[in-house]
From TrEMBL:
Domain (Chorismate mutase) ranges: 3-94
The protein, known as: T-protein
SUPFAM superfamilies xref list: 6-phosphogluconate dehydrogenase C-terminal domain-like (SSF48179), Chorismate mutase II (SSF48600), NAD(P)-binding Rossmann-fold domains (SSF51735)
Keyword Transcription regulation (UniProt): no
Matches recorded under InterPro entries: 6-PGluconate_DH-like_C_sf, Chor_mut/prephenate_DH_T, Chorismate_II_sf, CM_dom_sf, CM_II_prokaryot, CM_T, NAD(P)-bd_dom_sf, PDH_C
Keywords: Amino-acid biosynthesis, Aromatic amino acid biosynthesis, Cytoplasm, Isomerase, NAD, Oxidoreductase, Tyrosine biosynthesis
PANTHER family associated with the record: PREPHENATE DEHYDROGENASE, PREPHENATE DEHYDROGENASE [NADP(+)]
GO biological process: chorismate metabolic process; tyrosine biosynthetic process
Species whose genome carries this gene: Shewanella psychromarinicola
Pathway(s) served: Metabolic intermediate biosynthesis; prephenate biosynthesis; prephenate from chorismate: step 1/1; Amino-acid biosynthesis; L-tyrosine biosynthesis; (4-hydroxyphenyl)pyruvate from prephenate (NAD(+) route): step 1/1
SMART domains: CM_2
Gene3D superfamilies: 6-phosphogluconate dehydrogenase C-terminal like domain, Chorismate mutase, NAD(P)-binding Rossmann-like Domain
Length: 379
């Protein structure tokens, strides 16, 4: 490389640094505005996440980008990342308290990670929260006295037992709710233990989410919906979307969405371990999709085995879903063993037709994810 070109390059790089610094100032300005939005939302009780505003803003910026000869996807990516930052910043000012005269909240299992997250959100919304953990039952009568809401978030395998044995003496108008990832049995146990308002909740996220914006909370109605409607509204203010479901259908879906999926991820990990796969080496040869897949498998093993055992063992019906999967795996293996390439292709086409429009939609979505996996590489 000759001197002159290098000097030219250095000059351009200085200009780029200058533009990036301007970008930083603009980002600061945007974050300050978002903080103001957060304060206004807090006092008005407006949800942190505003999907319509986001959609219309993205559409306008995409159009403008197009007319400036900038890729619309580029501005969309940048704005989506900024909006994620906004949710975290808006959270700092706290949330409007929807129910002023509730009395306190008791979180049963308050030391668990999900219990801590919900306690934090409730405290950020002005509620007084008391926790009960497994060693605190001797004081429970005093803790429950005057409670307006009791949230049960203990391991699945003891949930029904705790409800049945410990939650029969709650104040009459107190709301009893649970956060268990299965719903039918805990809901029935709550309805039997308590004659006041009852609601089953299933937050469809782990405790490591930075914000509840865009997350889903499944609601299975129990009794006296009018009495706990404010709680659903409060959760919406935190940014989450409420999805109503019937307990039995929810549990059936969980056999596929959770039990079978986590189980196959578990087996994938077992297989890598038994094969003594060299992860460093695999990563070197990995495409972004493989890296993403490995990350999804690896992240399971960074978490609590008890939690996954609970989820997988929670419903007897999950065995059938998992065993059907094994049958399909075996059938597919037979195609391979018998060299039946044609059968493979035909099966593939059948499944593709069954996915229908979802297949291209998923391809599109995953492309963006894969690109960000690639962006994260630093060598
Ligand atoms: C800033 C707001 O809150 C959120 C963040 C947005 C942003 O960063 O642009 C847009 C919509 C909301 O989901 C708002 O409501 O305007």
């Amino acid at each position: 490389m000759n001197e002159k070109t290098t000097a030219g390059l250095e000059h351009l790089r200085d200009l780029i640094d200058g533009v990036d610094q301007q970008l930083l100032h603009l980002l600061r300005k945007r974050l300050d505005l978002v903080a103001q939005v957060g304060a206004v939302k807090h006092s008005a009780g407006v949800p942190i996440y505003a999907p319509q505003r986001e959609a219309s803003m993205l559409a306008k910026r995409r159009d403008e980008a197009q007319s400036m000869n900038i890729s619309p996807q580029l501005i969309e990516d940048i704005l989506r990342r900024l909006m994620r930052e906004s949710y975290l910043n808006e959270k700092d000012v706290g949330f409007k308290q929807i129910k002023q005269d509730l009395g306190h909240v008791v979180v049963v299992g308050g030391q668990g990670k999900l219990g801590q997250l919900f306690s934090q959100m409730l405290v950020l919304s002005g509620y007084e929260v008391k926790c009960i953990d497994k060693n605190d039952w001797q004081d429970s009568a005093a803790i429950f006295d005057g409670a307006g809401l009791v949230i049960v978030t203990v391991p699945i395998n003891v949930t029904c037992e705790v409800i049945r044995d410990k939650l029969t003496q709650l104040p009459e108008n107190c709301i009893l709710a649970d956060l268990t990832s299965i719903k039918e049995a805990p809901l029935a146990a709550m309805l039997a233990a308590h004659s006041g308002p009852v609601v089953g909740l299933h937050p469809m996220f782990g405790p490591d989410v930075g914000s509840l914006a865009k997350q889903v909370v499944v609601v299975c109605h129990g009794r006296h919906q009018d009495a706990y409607q404010w709680l659903l509204q409060q959760i919406e203010i935190w940014g989450a979307r409420i999805v109503e479901a019937e307990a039995e259908r929810h549990d059936k879906a969980m056999q596929l969405v959770q039990a079978m999926r986590h189980f196959s991820t578990f087996v994938y990990g077992v297989n890598l371990c038994k094969e003594e796969a060299d992860i460093d080496n695999l990563l070197q040869f990995s495409s972004p999709i493989y890296r993403l897949e490995l990350a999804m498998v690896g992240r399971l093993f960074a978490q609590d085995p008890e939690l996954y055992a609970d989820i997988i063992f929670a419903q007897p019906g999950s065995q059938h879903a998992i065993s059907d999967y094994l049958d399909n795996y075996r059938d597919a293996l037979i195609m391979l063993q018998t060299g039946n390439r044609q059968a493979f292709v035909e099966q593939f086409q059948r499944v593709a037709a069954w996915f229908g429009d979802f297949a291209p939609q998923f391809q599109h979505e995953s492309r963006t994810m894969l690109q960000s996996v690639n962006d994260m590489k630093s060598s």
